[in-house]
Specification:
Chain B: The IL7 receptor is a heterodimer of IL7R and IL2RG. The TSLP receptor is a heterodimer of CRLF2 and IL7R. Interacts with CD53. Chain B: The chain crosses the membrane at residues 243-270. The complex is a heterodimer of chains A (180) and B (465). Chain A has 180 residues and is an all-alpha fold. Helix content of chain A is 59%, strand content 0%. The longest helix of chain A has 24 residues, at 32-55. A 4-stranded antiparallel β-sheet of chain B has the order 1-2-6-5, with no helix packed on it. In chain B, strands 4-3-7-8 form a 4-stranded antiparallel β-sheet, with no helix packed on it. In chain B, a hairpin with a 2-residue loop joins strand 1 and strand 2. Chain B is rod-shaped and about 210 Å long. Classes of the chains: A mainly alpha (180), B alpha+beta (465).
Chain lengths: 180, 465
């Protein structure tokens, strides 16, 4: 009796493993040439525009601030795609931060969504679907807030600026690798 | 037991097959909901084009039906995107004969679906970056470059200040003569040049421009034509104009140089030549007289006062002239001989023999006062007459003391002895010159009893001269 039970369990378990979703990784193995082309022709312009927009805001108060998720800002060698995914998903958190300028938040979310789209990645907590849907439709219902003064500075704003800078650096690094 | 195991294995394999089949596959049904009941293809065709960065970060999609559906049926178009196993569709807005939609996602693959009233849906895949239609160029400017004989055509495009299509377009320039055939030029830049030699002279031309993605990543179609711009070419006198302009320049330079030379000459010769000729001075009598008459030398004494000539050295009478005059005087003539004996009859002293010569022969050389050589007097008066003289005849010379019957010597006045003459009768050591007016006797010895008459004589000398 027990032998039959064990045999059935041990045979089912492999089936369960087979029946589990095929892709368990959050990023698909996309064509690097296609990634490079999409980045050079479209995404790079958006990243530059976001960086220029970020530079318009004063960040004197951001020099001595320490961030909680400092690990997010590292672009690990041989793990550039994963690093970019982590940065993009982290940036989506700021889409609902009302202390930050609406246009700035929307642009940052757009870059995050396109980064995930080019890399064919998903976020762990499935926040991407809702935010990117709103971004693509430019739904401003949840983003209505007072315009942030460019003179004011807050913790979230500083963290977002650093996130943007890290994203740009990591993309430059990854582009050089895939352009070889 | 064995049968149960086999059945479970078969079922698991079957389930696995189904899972693999439906696990990651997309919905390819026309409905988009997994059913295949409405996959009948329709023959309605429509064309779509996209415009990137139509408004800020939004792009647009515009679709037109090439074959209109039947009027009794209403259709709508929707743009669908698959996101994480979800099929999200956005209905397009109908605007007159076209369907329009704004969106931001231009990276993912999309489907364009036509939905009928009966919920039938026909979809077709669509890549937004492959159906790009750029915006219309504008602001065409034509500039003629005379030196190169070229027409520079410059234009602008809205994509110059946008992100995606900047420097990724090809522009087509079309030009034609009035109502002629269009000729085209393609360029990736925002300006082109038309050679003047390839165009008709003095003709009107029309130019228009349109754009298209260059095809490296973005593909698509030509934009609409821009507004036409007309211009007129120059006349054929280009070469002749150049020649005439060169001639004009050379002539102007020569004229300028000539005017400068004329000015310099006028300034240089104004006082000396031009002004006297153009504005001659009125003659001044005094100056004219001075110009006519020779100016005397600085040492020349212009004075008619005999006293001022006291320092003047009296030159001897020219011997030849004296001889000539003496011969004239010695010629037989009653007048002088008759007078002679009367004079010598006095015998007391020597007196000047009045020499009455012909006035016509009177000249300063004759009327001067000179010292007659003794031989001449001897011949004239005879030796006997001379012997009767007194000791005063020791001097061999005699001085004439009369001239023109005017006694010139005072009584008892001894004539100064003159150097003895050469017995041969040669002229004296100081022959007289032609200008014998200067032969003046010392005024203190031969003073005329009448000074006014002497002045008259001197002035007459001056006048005759």
């Amino acid at each position: 009796m027990f032998h039959a039970l064990f045999r059935s369990i041990f045979r089912v378990l492999p089936l369960l493993l087979v029946l589990s979703p095929v892709n368990s990784s959050s990023c698909a193995m996309g064509n690097k040439t296609e990634i490079r082309v999409k980045y050079e022709n479209i995404l790079s312009h958006d990243v530059d525009e976001l960086v220029n927009m970020s530079a318009e805001y004063r960040d004197r108060c951001c020099k001595n601030k320490k961030h909680e998720n400092s690990k997010v800002f590292f672009c690990n060698d041989t793990q550039e795609i994963e690093s970019l995914q982590s940065m993009a998903c982290n940036m989506l958190r700021f889409f609902h931060k009302q202390k930050i300028s609406k246009d700035f938040r929307w642009k940052a979310a757009l870059v995050s969504c396109r980064t995930l789209q080019v890399l064919q990645c998903k976020c762990e907590r499935h926040k991407k679907e809702k935010v990117c849907t709103q971004v693509n439709t430019h739904n401003t219902e949840d983003t209505e807030t007072s315009e942030q003064s460019k003179k004011k500075c807050n913790q979230e704003f500083c963290e977002l600026k650093e996130n943007i800078s890290s994203l740009r650096s990591c993309w430059n690094k990854f582009e050089k690798i895939i352009s070889r | 037991m064995l049968r149960m195991t086999q059945m479970s294995t078969v079922l698991s394999i079957f389930v696995l097959f189904l899972h693999t089949t439906f696990g990651e596959s997309g919905c390819t049904s026309a409905d988009g909901d997994g059913t295949f009941g409405d996959d009948e293809p329709d023959n309605f065709e429509f064309d779509c084009f996209s415009q990137l960065e139509f408004k800020d970060s939004y792009s647009s999609l515009t679709c037109n039906f090439t074959e209109l559906p039947p009027h009794h049926t209403n259709y709508s178009l929707a743009l669908c995107t698959k996101e994480d196993s979800n099929y999200v569709c956005f209905n397009m807005e109908k605007q007159e004969d076209a369907y329009f939609l704004q969106f931001t996602d231009i990276l993912s693959n999309k489907d364009i679906c036509m939905v009928s009233e009966m919920k039938r849906r026909v979809c077709r895949s669509l890549v937004v970056t492959d159906i790009v239609k750029p915006e219309v160029p504008f602001n065409i400017n034509i500039t003629y470059q005379k030196e190169a004989n070229e027409y520079l055509i410059h234009y602008s495009t809205p994509h110059s200040w946008k992100k995606y299509l900047k420097d990724k377009l090809i522009h087509q320039i079309a030009y034609r003569q009035e109502e002629g055939t269009w000729k085209t030029i393609e360029s990736p830049y925002l300006q082109v040049k038309l050679l003047g030699k390839n165009l008709e002279n003095d003709a009107s031309y029309e130019v228009k421009v349109r754009s298209q993605p260059n095809g490296d990543y973005f593909k698509g179609m030509w934009s609409e034509w821009s507004a036409s711009k007309s211009f007129r070419t120059t006349r054929e006198l280009h070469s002749t104009e150049t020649y005439s302009s060169v001639v004009v320049v050379i002539l102007s330079i020569l004229g300028f140089m000539l005017s400068i030379v004329m000015i310099v000459l006028m300034v240089t010769f104004w006082e000396n030549r031009i002004k006297p000729a153009v504005w001659p001075n009125l003659p001044d009598h005094k100056k004219t007289l001075e110009q006519l008459c020779k100016k005397p030398k600085n040492n020349f004494d212009i004075s008619f006062n005999p006293e001022s000539f006291g320092y003047v050295h009296i030159h001897k009478v020219d011997g030849i002239r004296a001889k000539a005059e003496l011969e004239n005087f010695l010629q037989p003539s009653t007048a002088p001989e008759t007078n002679l004996p009367e004079k010598f009859r006095n015998g007391s002293d020597l007196k000047m023999i009045p020499v009455t010569t012909d006035k016509s022969n009177l000249n300063p050389s004759v009327t001067y006062r000179g010292i007659w050589p003794a031989e001449a007097l001897h011949r004239l008066l005879g030796t006997s007459q001379f012997a009767a003289t007194e000791g005063n005849c020791g001097s061999s010379t005699y001085e004439v003391c009369h001239s023109n019957g005017v006694p010139l010597c005072k009584d008892g006045f001894n004539l100064s002895s003159a150097p003895p003459q050469d017995p041969s009768g040669q002229p004296g050591p100081e022959p007289l010159s032609g200008d014998t007016a200067s032969q003046m006797l010392p005024t203190r010895e031969m003073r005329s009893p009448n000074n006014e008459e002497a002045y008259v004589t001197m002035s007459s000398f001056y006048k005759i001269q």
